[in-house]
Each structure stands twice: as C-alpha cells, then as structure tokens.
Amino acid sequence: MTLFAMVSFIISTVLLLVGVAFITLLERKILGYMQLRLGPNKLGFNGLLQPLADAIKLYTKETSITSSLNKNVFFICPPLSLSIAMMIWISFPFYMPFISLKTSLLMFLSILGLGIYPILISGWSSNSNYSMLGAMRALAQTISYEVSLIFIVMSNMIMFSSMSFSKFCMSQKFFFSLFFSIQVMMLLISIIAELNRTPFDFAEGESELVSGFNTEYSSSLFAIIFMAEYMMIMFFSLFLTLMLMGFTKLNFLNFFFSSAFMFFMIWIRATLPRYRYDKLMFLSWKIILPLSSFNLIFSMILTVFKVY
C-alpha cells in the first residue's frame, strides 16, 4: 500500500461523507419538482447550503433519552451502522485501491450481511413497540432479499470466473443489462428492498410505525442513521453501474450512470405507494428467489459448456 493509495482513500472518504449531505438535497429538490413545489430554496444559491443548515440543526439539538432505554446499546448502534456503511466501500475498485482484494465481491456480500445487526439491536434497545416491530420487519425483509441478491451476484461471479470487482468489470465486453433484462429487474428490486426504499420502506413506515426502528432516535444519532442509509444508496448506485455497465475505472460515465440510478430510486419514491408487507414476502420467496435460483443454474450450465 503506497502513500498515494492512502491519500486517495482518505480523500474519497471525505468526499463520500460530504456527498451524503448533498444527496439529501438532491432528493428533496427532485421530490419537490415532481410534486409541483420548490423544495429547499432559501439558504445559499437555490438552496445549496440547506444540507449545511440541516447538519448544524441536527448536531446541536439535545438528544432525547427515555428511562426505558438500554442506553449503552442504544448509543452504539448508529455509529456501528455508519461504520459498516463506510467499511463496505473498501471492497470497491477505486482508481488506486486502499486494499487490493482478489475476493472483493465476497467481502462485499459478507459486510452487507452485517447491516441488519445495528437495525435489529437499535429496535430492541429502544424498548418501544414501534421500534421493535420495525426492526423485525427489517430483519425479515433483509434476509428475504439478500438471498436473491447473493444468487444474482453469484451467477455473475460464475460466468466471469472471478470474485473480484476489477476482474469482473474488465471481463465485460458489452452492457450486461442488454442481454439479461429479467436478471437486472430482479437485481433492482432486491437492491431497493435491501435499502428499505419506497415502495419497500416497511422498516420506516411512517403511516404504520411512526418512524419504525429509529422512532426513539433524535438529533445527531438520527442524522448518523440516515448518513449510513444514504451512503448505502451511493454505494449501490455505483455497484449497479459496475455490474451492469462494465466500466473498469471511476470516470464521467460512471458518475453519469450512478447519478441516473440514484435519480431512479428517488423517482420511484415520488411515484409508487407503499407495497403491502405480505405481498413483499410473496414477491421474494415465490417469484424472485425461484427465478434467481434458475438464473444461477443457467449460468453454471453456460459456464460448464463454455457457451459464454
């Protein structure tokens, strides 16, 4: 690991933390224009300083603490969630990677599986019925869609005979999405469900659970939870770009397509109502999982007979 790689990683981390703030602004502006309203437009030019004002407001507010909390665990969960969201970026193939891994896809899947623990523990430590119900929903939803997501990623790993992001991207000679449209659709649904985004935001359903697993969180702890959530949105947008478009290095095209995927997730939030929970489970176990299993077997057959 060279000094340049370390400096590159530190700069990327700082830009990542700053970018999270402006994604919230992007979402509020897009939702505003889609719903025929302006969105934030007072602070700075056209509202560009709104994320800074939100950060000052959230990090200077007093944290509300109820007597029924399991305090130590309650306060640990948000930083743990943010740490996992930042750790997953280590597996990403930057121009100058901080750690060079031959099994970066496997590391990505391993870290992704840890993401449910802060949500589940925060819901339990809050000692609130709403928080606990949101945490249990998040647990069932994450387990359901992570299985399908792993199968889809495994089918790609088998076809390209590699567990490395970089090797996978260099092996692609075409846009993967043009030839496997059903797989891409399942991948998009699984990722949106994994991120707890509308229409699958059952862990944070305001109309049903007040705010879900984070009901008892406020001020800086609340901000840290949503920093982790939006950081994962940024990661999965770049992940989709590399998996579907096959670009080997971060450049303008990567930025364009990842921004398009982020816009797509926000567009879905502005368009679709919340799904029903039993139908979400039916979609996972009865439709997406069998199709992704068949897709995995089909990829193995193509690889064995060297069709691909």
Automatic annotation (TrEMBL):
<keyword id="KW-0496">Mitochondrion</keyword>
<dbReference type="GO" id="GO:0003954">
    <property type="term" value="F:NADH dehydrogenase activity"/>
</dbReference>
<dbReference type="InterPro" id="IPR001694">
    <property type="entry name" value="NADH_UbQ_OxRdtase_su1/FPO"/>
</dbReference>
<feature type="transmembrane region" description="Helical">
    <location>
        <begin position="73"/>
        <end position="92"/>
    </location>
</feature>
<feature type="transmembrane region" description="Helical">
    <location>
        <begin position="221"/>
        <end position="245"/>
    </location>
</feature>
<feature type="transmembrane region" description="Helical">
    <location>
        <begin position="282"/>
        <end position="305"/>
    </location>
</feature>
<keyword id="KW-0813">Transport</keyword>
<feature type="transmembrane region" description="Helical">
    <location>
        <begin position="7"/>
        <end position="26"/>
    </location>
</feature>
<keyword id="KW-0520">NAD</keyword>
<dbReference type="Pfam" id="PF00146">
    <property type="entry name" value="NADHdh"/>
</dbReference>
<dbReference type="GO" id="GO:0008137">
    <property type="term" value="F:NADH dehydrogenase (ubiquinone) activity"/>
</dbReference>
<keyword id="KW-0472">Membrane</keyword>
<feature type="transmembrane region" description="Helical">
    <location>
        <begin position="104"/>
        <end position="123"/>
    </location>
</feature>
<comment type="similarity">
    <text>Belongs to the complex I subunit 1 family.</text>
</comment>
<protein>
    <recommendedName>
        <fullName>NADH-ubiquinone oxidoreductase chain 1</fullName>
        <ecNumber>7.1.1.2</ecNumber>
    </recommendedName>
</protein>
<keyword id="KW-1133">Transmembrane helix</keyword>
<dbReference type="GO" id="GO:0009060">
    <property type="term" value="P:aerobic respiration"/>
</dbReference>
<dbReference type="GO" id="GO:0005743">
    <property type="term" value="C:mitochondrial inner membrane"/>
</dbReference>
<feature type="transmembrane region" description="Helical">
    <location>
        <begin position="252"/>
        <end position="270"/>
    </location>
</feature>
<keyword id="KW-0812">Transmembrane</keyword>
<dbReference type="InterPro" id="IPR018086">
    <property type="entry name" value="NADH_UbQ_OxRdtase_su1_CS"/>
</dbReference>
<comment type="function">
    <text>Core subunit of the mitochondrial membrane respiratory chain NADH dehydrogenase (Complex I) that is believed to belong to the minimal assembly required for catalysis. Complex I functions in the transfer of electrons from NADH to the respiratory chain. The immediate electron acceptor for the enzyme is believed to be ubiquinone.</text>
</comment>
<feature type="transmembrane region" description="Helical">
    <location>
        <begin position="174"/>
        <end position="193"/>
    </location>
</feature>
<keyword id="KW-0999">Mitochondrion inner membrane</keyword>
<keyword id="KW-0830">Ubiquinone</keyword>
